[in-house]
Specification:
Blueprint: H1 3-26, H2 30-52, H3 57-102, H4 111-125, H5 135-158, H6 160-179, H7 181-192, H8 196-235, H9 240-251, H10 259-271, H11 275-300, H12 309-323, H13 327-351
């Protein structure tokens, strides 16, 4: 091997080892970095607007970061913490009641739970499914579901102290990405070898996807959750905050949405012979579905991903299984970016043009 080849091998080894070491050190903060990068993309058009009013880039980035932290990040973190504690307490109560039931203390077990078991068994018996769906088996399915959810939310609960550290890292990343937007763009443009027009297209797609996730999905889910939670609280079927938190999580998952929660509450009301409450909750479920079909498309005009709902559904569930609660958001972000930007890379590969033209970094 020639001296020049040995030097190339040494450089590759050095770069590989250093990259691996860097990724290992950064990996614990992958989630807040992803959030910081995607949120900065969503906020970037506002940054440009502030600059058009004569505000320097550094001050505009600081202002947006502070406003985002005070108005959105801190309240959402508090909401996640309180919601996780509330849901965990309710699930633990159900498990505790099940333990009492095993000891023969039937009176302490939730009436709604056993009414649901009896209701399912009654109607499935007409279909000759009693051998597969006995009362014991139905109750066992509920136990498995409850235990899984309890373990999920307990894991979120135990990681809450880390959430505050992640929040700090995310805020720092948002400010850094906004302030150094031109440098970040230039780095990726050199890395990918894209011309300026192609890089602008990539940036625009990324901004649209980020805004779609954070504006269209979250706002729509929040409005739907508020409607369903108010309906449940008004009819006395469920706790407002508990229903709101559960509905918000499901509303963010494509295909499922918020309406099933209202229908479940309506079913519980029906089992408890509260027919008026059940009717109100059915109307609430239909209304929440209309919100999804009206509000979401209107908000999506600010930037809509082309990812199919079923693909988004799989990405969200995959993200949740791998990362827990943050995976609900990360999964949709990664899925949207992949589905919308990979065709652009494939197009450039097909052109066979990877020449990078050195230009002055632009700000968008």
């Amino acid at each position: 091997m020639s001296k020049k080849s040995e030097q190339k091998v040494a450089r590759v080894i050095y770069m590989t080892l250093l990259s691996i070491a860097f990724l290992i050190l950064v990996s614990p903060f992958a989630v807040p970095i992803i959030f910081g990068a995607s949120i900065s993309l969503a906020l970037f058009p506002l940054l440009l607007r502030l600059e058009s009013y004569g505000l320097p880039r550094k001050k505009a980035a600081a202002l947006l970061t502070v406003l985002f932290t005070i108005l959105i990040s801190i309240p959402i973190t508090f909401f996640i913490a309180k919601g996780t504690i509330t849901v965990t307490a309710q699930l633990e109560k159900i498990n505790f009641n099940e333990q009492l039931k095993d000891q023969g203390m039937e009176g302490f077990v939730s009436d709604a739970r056993h009414e649901l078991v009896l209701f399912v068994h009654k109607h499935t018996s007409k279909l000759n499914l009693e051998d597969f769906l006995t009362k014991k088996k139905i109750d066992g399915y509920l136990n498995v579901t409850t235990s899984y959810l309890l373990n999920f939310f307990r894991s979120v609960l135990t990681s809450l102290p880390v959430v505050f550290l992640f929040l700090l890292v995310m805020v720092i990343c948002i400010y850094s990405f906004l302030k150094n937007a031109g440098t970040v763009r230039s780095f990726f443009q050199k890395l990918f070898g894209f011309k300026d027009e192609t890089m602008s297209e990539l940036v625009q797609i990324s901004i649209q996807d980020a805004r779609d996730v954070y504006v269209s999905n979250i706002v729509t889910a929040a409005v739907q959750s508020l409607v369903v939670a108010l309906g449940a609280a008004f009819t006395g079927i469920g706790d407002f905050f508990f229903v709101f938190f559960i509905t918000l999580i499901l509303a963010f998952i494509p295909v499922i949405g918020a309406a099933p929660v209202a229908f479940v509450c309506a079913g519980i009301a029906f089992l408890q012979d509260k027919n008026t409450a059940a009717l109100i909750l059915v109307i609430v479920a239909i209304f929440s579905g209309l919100i999804d079909n009206i509000l979401r498309p209107w908000l999506a005009t600010m930037g809509e991903s082309k990812i199919p709902p079923i693909t988004a559904f799989i990405c969200v569930l995959g993200g949740a299984l791998l990362m827990g609660f943050p995976g609900l958001f990360v999964g949709l972000l990664v899925g949207s970016f992949a589905y919308d930007t990979l065709p652009l890379f494939w197009r450039e590969i097909g052109k066979g043009d990877h020449s990078y033209v050195e230009e002055t970094p632009r700000e968008s």
